[in-house]
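Good morning C.,

I know you're traveling, so I'll keep this short. The sequence:
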Amino acid sequence: MFDKEYDVIVVGGGHAGAEAAAAAANLGSKTLLVTMSLQNIAQMSCNPAMGGIAKGQIVREIDALGGYSGIITDKTAIQFKMLNKSKGPAMWSPRAQSDRMRFAEEWRLALENTPNVDFYQEMVSGLLIKGNKVVGVKTTMGLEIKSKSVVLTNGTFLNGLIHIGDKQMGGGRSGEKASTGITEQLVSLGFISGRMKTGTPPRVDGRTLDYSVMIPQPGDPNPETFSYLDTKPLTHQRACHMSHTSALVHDLLREGFDRSPMFNGRIKSIGPRYCPSIEDKINRFADKDSHQIFVEPEGWNTVEVYVNGFSTSLPEDVQFKALRSVKGFEKVKFFRPGYAIEYDYFPPTQLKHTLETKLVDNLYFAGQINGTTGYEEAASQGLMAGINAHLKINEKDPFILQRDEAYIGVLVDDLITKGTEEPYRMFTSRAEYRTLLRQDNADLRLTPMSYNIGLATKERMERMEQKEKESNSFIQFFKDTSYSPEDVNPILEDLNSSLVKQPDKMFKVFSRPKVTMEHMRQLEPVSKYIEEHQLDREVLEQTEIQVKYAGYIAKEKNNADKLQRLENIKIPENFNYDNIKSLSYEAREKLKSIKPISISQASRISGVSPSDISVLLVYMGR
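The tokens, ready to paste straight into the viewer:
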């Protein structure tokens, strides 16, 4: 039934598993994707959307590296927005509403059209281990499938338990059974496991909603795309809508608190801090008598609607009664109630930066098994695990992104170095070099790296090089070309900006805060240059950012270079911290547990102080 031995077996077909299988296969590994449901590959288990604050940057990075998430999002989007446009470009974050059914369909078709990917539908109940190395998987039917490496991307399925009020049922997702056996085996091998919780809101019938009393939330007038390839932007979009809860809705919800698994002790694990349930919100923010509800269509043609902001595990009768008191929902009918789900995860400090486990060679974890939440976070880990599984079995150097190179690098480093005791979600504030890690330049940052390991295609590389060349040439044009005061002053006067008295280089006036590319295009030399060179939106945007934020970018790059010096001071794999008596006891214990690979990583471990780092540097002769 199977190849004699696969290079990579990916367990789980969610966002992490799909990207892991695609990456390993596209690099040339014989890959088997094993999942409990081939109909639900890359299923959007929660909201029908990709991207958002910091998450949109991750999707762009996945695309720049040669992953599929950006392309498939563009193919199945029903609305596109660039969030935070009123702020600086480091904060701009793309987000798209997706057609849920088409998203999963496109993912499956993409994988089916990827050479080297085989599929099998069954539950994996354990791993085949030889010595301290994984050599395959075993299924509930007793089949043993051999492989050189295994990537576990089990999502919320490991001993998943669904809660609705005082009802409990085993399951990894509504209507799908939980996965058993893997946690118990890993714990027997010495792994530490924990429990986390997440939740989802009711899905409702859009035909029963009154949109006329809600606030429309349209997409951008000129929508962009996620992928750096030539995917097509939307020509028409579906609107979302917004409503609000009220004091009455909150009172109705409180009536069910005594039956809430969150408050009666049935749920003991921790849920996502930044995406709380509605009962958690009204309990924690008792002074607020209203919360936003976003009404999001699940696709182009379906009437199913996702009620964003109303995640709950309250009894279904309480959910229904309260939601019918929300403006526009007075006649609502449910497709299914909201629920909470508890599942097993493994604290990610048990992993290396490649996402390979420290205890078992060639075994990789990606996605919610590592304590993260979100499609984008999961997909990026799957991509990195798939890449590194391929590189490891081919005896090539690992592929590790640094904190100043990608949000993905920040995500993995945070998980490995700091761990997490609650579902980890990416934010721009987690990245100390976010001016460098913008959504507009992910291709410039990452495509060359990916091309060098054989994942990013020649087409991607050529498009990136063309964009870089055109942008650099246009920047040089602004540095070389002078303006006359009589041409520039009318523009500056309209902007209430101080006028100029003598000619100077265009770069200088373009650097002013209020002056945009649209203003500069009013100058004949600029408009003529754009027309002659047929510059597209991406090049114009890249040029403007590089000109206006040149000082900030240079300063941040300098800071990153300083940190890189510490990154270059490597710590031997079997370094004996007990030999250094000057280290604090806490630092010694944390360093022995996490086993950082560099002084830089050691400095980011909670409990390791600057004086401990100084001791390490002295000990290593630095």
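Safe travels,
E.
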